[in-house]
Amino acid sequence: MASENRVNIDIFKSVTRAIAHSEDLDIMTNHLCQLLTAGLDIKGCAIFVLNAVTEELEILASFGLSAKYLTKGPLSTPRSINATFQGNPAVISDIGQKNHGLQYPDEARKEGIAAIASLPIIHLNEVIGVLRLYHYEPWKVSDQDLESLQILAGIIGLAMMYTRFHNTVHAIAEVLGHTFQVQLTSKAGKR
């Protein structure tokens, strides 16, 4: 379980391109999961959003994980790698060890997961989601990679908020455009 640097400039370029060329949040996050899984040579990746009401994580996108694993049960913030929800990254280098804070360790083992890196997705100092990377073998994430992954999670958070804002503005513009069009048409018909 040697520590090696896996996050390189090519991964940053791929993530940046995927974000820059997508207005659809679902497509963008699914593409990011695929890119990170392939670029890091890991088992899978998932991006979750935090439901502030239920305090549970909801899957936004994933790659490399089975539907059975993704639907194993609710991911509760106090029980599912809690350090992440305090704004700190957490790495479970080997889920075979005890006291790792994993909510569903048996399901992870059945899925073929040996290690998990869990990174908070933060926007304006609030955790809005989680980026999780799943490895098929024990994985000691280097300090440099952990820092790089935190930056990537921050970029994903910005992209998520920007995409939501962009789509909301376009939806409002469409409704307003349709409303003004109807009003202009009805006024023109009264003359």
TrEMBL record:
Coiled-coil stretches noted in the UniProt entry, renumbered to this chain: none
InterPro entries assigned: GAF, GAF-like_dom_sf
Domain (GAF) ranges: 20-170
Spans through the membrane: none
Source species, domain of life: Bacteria
Protein's recorded name: GAF domain-containing protein
Organism: Desulfosarcina ovata subsp. sediminis
